[in-house]
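Homework help board

Subject: predicted structure for assignment chain

Our instructor gave us this sequence and asked us to write out the predicted structure in token form, then describe one feature. I got the tokens but I'm not sure how to describe them. Can anyone check?
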Amino acid sequence: MHGGPSRRKHQIFAVHMVFRAGLLKPTGPMEGGRPAHNTAESHVNFVPKDAVPRHDGAVQASSGEFAGWWTWTRDNYEVHNGPFWHREEDGKVRCVFRVEQKHVNGGGAVHGGCLMTFADYCLFAIANTVLHEGRGVTLSFATEFIDAVYKGELVEGTGEVVRAGRSIIFMRGMLTAEGRPVLSFSGTVKRIKAERTTG
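My token output:
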């Protein structure tokens, strides 16, 4: 569930770094199922302090790897566990995040709870196409893990609205990492009329 616009967070600095024999930047080509890397570099995604929120409270990054992408800064949990980003491409919503060390579990792969959190973010990004200025809460949510995800990889989420009823919105989607399926999800969002809160 996404609350009201935050009083304090219209500014995000998200530093994406990969440590593998130093601070390294992931590149497109894959080596042995993991991203290849080049010289040390970090990406800073910056949302201006005076950014004007969109109708749904989302603000836009003006620089960095995800310049032009949107994020919700009103959800403290997502801000600390992301940052997650979304935008519309050819009429469909696409969500992304770059895996950092903080997302990795003791086994060296991305924690399943992180992927589920991102999938829930995707659920609302997709639902937003029919919620418009309305609000909603997660009513049901199901996931299936398909493959592991590793630090430095780009995780993408896409999906569709299966049915948008007067009360409940049904959706399904898929997360991929560097092009391979890693998690499938489905869920329902219930429309609500409660006022948005701040903070």
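Reply (TA_rk): Your tokens look well-formed. For the description, you could write something like this. The chain is about 15% helix and 45% strand. That's the kind of observation they're looking for.
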